[in-house]
Design a protein that fits this description.
about 35% helix, 14 strands, alpha+beta, globular
């Protein structure tokens, strides 16, 4: 690991003011610090966000749930408010990594990193959430650009995520036994105006499946998508699973997610 400067501001404005070229915001550090150890990330400075109180917490805003960017996975999993309004998000958070990761990792850090196998992107995209930054609000459909790439501009800081509350939602993943990352994870959410289906772990970046959404909007049941498949050509193939196997998993996980939402 190469030398770097370290800052620990106490406010959002203070954190943003410190941002400059080749600096990194430090949330839980679950991805950034291992990358720094291997010199895959070489920031000249780290801006530690752990002392910024306005980035933490879970609250209601109108008919939505807003989660601060520095809220840990464990806090989301333990939240009574989230459990009562968005239980599928609790199911997502409680299955991330292991206890150490859940108690350090944050929702904002996960989204900013946009690992193609991370769980939160599926929940954010599946629910049509809004990513709030120090500069603007970004719709989930516009946020995830490519593997480890988002719509965030240099120095832009995620402050919170706003989730609309669906009529029903479910999240199911099939995990790698070695990494615990999903080989395919599917988040399904039903709203008055339609259904959203988001997939993580199977492709270079999280994506929606219109081929599932249309039939589910007409009939919200696992049987509605029994004969629908996804194209293996858009899936990744690696030592964990082939593209064809991941494509099969997406269909299976989607039907299970619908059943979860119904139950």
């Amino acid at each position: 690991m190469k030398p770097f400067d370290y800052f620990r501001p106490g406010s959002i404005s203070g954190a943003v003011a410190l941002a400059r070229e080749q600096t990194c915001f430090l949330a839980g550090g679950m991805s950034l610090l291992p990358m720094m150890k291997h010199n895959l990330a070489v920031p000249v400075a780290l801006i530690d966000l752990s002392a910024v109180p306005d980035l933490n917490g879970i609250r209601t805003t109108g008919e939505a749930i807003e989660i601060g960017a520095m809220t840990t996975h464990a806090a989301v999993a333990a939240s009574v408010l989230v459990r009562e309004t968005l239980p599928a998000l609790v199911a997502l958070a409680v299955g991330i990594g292991d206890p150490a990761v859940r108690n350090r990792g944050t929702i904002g850090g996960s989204l900013a990193n946009n690992d193609p196998a991370a769980d939160y992107p599926a929940g954010v995209l599946g629910l049509g959430a809004t990513i709030i930054t120090d500069r603007r609000e970004i719709a989930a459909d516009d946020f995830f650009v490519a593997s480890f790439t988002t719509a965030l501009e240099p120095g832009e800081l995620i402050t919170a995520v706003r989730f609309p509350v669906p009529l029903a939602a479910g999240y199911v993943r099939f995990r790698s036994a070695a990494s615990r990352f999903p080989l395919a994870g599917v988040f399904v959410a039903r709203f008055t105006g339609g259904v959203r289906v988001a997939v993580t772990g199977a492709a270079p970046s999280v994506f929606r499946v219109p081929g599932f959404e249309a039939p589910l909007a007409k009939e919200f049941s696992p049987g509605a998508i029994e004969a629908v498949s996804v194209d293996p050509a858009r899936m990744v193939s690696d030592i964990n699973a082939s593209a064809a196997y991941r494509a099969h998993l997406v269909g299976v996980m989607a039907r299970r997610a619908v059943a979860e939402a119904m139950g």
